[in-house]
Design a protein that fits this description.
Blueprint (H helix, E strand, L loop, with lengths): L2 H19 L8 H34 L10 H11 L6 H21 L2 H10 L3 H23 L8 H14 L17 H13 L3
Helix pairs in contact: 2-3, 2-4, 2-7, 2-8, 3-4, 4-8, 6-8, 7-8
């Protein structure tokens, strides 16, 4: 056997050993495990804790991440979340919830078109409150899709159901007419998950 053939044989043996040690296909997907962790974090903070964390990161996004000038950078929002959670009793849980908030902040422009945003600016004394209410309406549309999918019937299945719905949405085109509040456009998996986790988990 040549040196190359021996190397290939060893690589094949290592691959087979890795496959044998890997979890069965029936095990939960890593995506679903991530969704479950994020959902538990949002629920663990509770509405008041989520509201306080959301306000802290929103303020940092405007003052430090230039959110008023465009979509805030992911790295800046992550740093803001870590700073906001530095003194939390359960820092890991707080940071997991902060990641959901950061993803939702970066996903606002995908959910709310410029015309709707301008309407909120002109017609609202409290723009943040109006924006939060509008986002919640869009999240509710996604949640209705989740219910209609029929995959979240059993208690504790929310994470798997959210993962499955968002994977499907990530692969399909969802076109919406401008300013249609009953339509949620195409979203990447991460932004779809963050929106549903925040709504289902009880975020404000």
């Amino acid at each position: 056997m040549t040196a190359r053939a021996a190397l290939l044989a060893r690589a094949a043996a290592l691959a087979l050993a890795w496959l044998a040690a890997a979890p069965a296909w029936a095990e939960p997907l890593p995506h679903a495990a991530y969704v479950g962790r994020a959902l538990a974090a949002v629920r663990g903070l509770g509405p008041a804790g989520c509201e306080a964390l959301d306000r802290a990161i929103y303020a940092a996004a405007r003052s430090q991440c230039r959110a008023d000038a465009g979509t805030p950078a992911a790295g800046c929002l992550i740093a803001a979340g870590r700073a906001a959670c530095a003194a939390a009793a359960d820092r890991a849980r707080c940071e997991a919830a902060a990641d959901v908030i950061a993803t939702n902040l970066r996903g606002q422009t995908a959910l709310i078109d410029d015309a709707t945003r301008m309407r909120l600016v002109r017609g609202s004394a409290d723009y943040r409150a109006a924006l939060t209410a509008e986002l919640r309406r869009r999240y509710a549309v996604l949640a209705a899709e989740l219910v209609l999918s029929g995959t979240a019937a059993a208690p504790g299945d929310e994470a798997r159901a959210i993962d499955a719905l968002c994977l499907g949405r990530d692969r399909a085109v969802h076109a919406c007419q401008a300013s249609d509040p009953a339509c949620v456009p195409s979203l990447p998996w991460s932004r779809c998950v963050a929106a549903l986790v925040w709504f289902v988990g009880g975020g404000p």
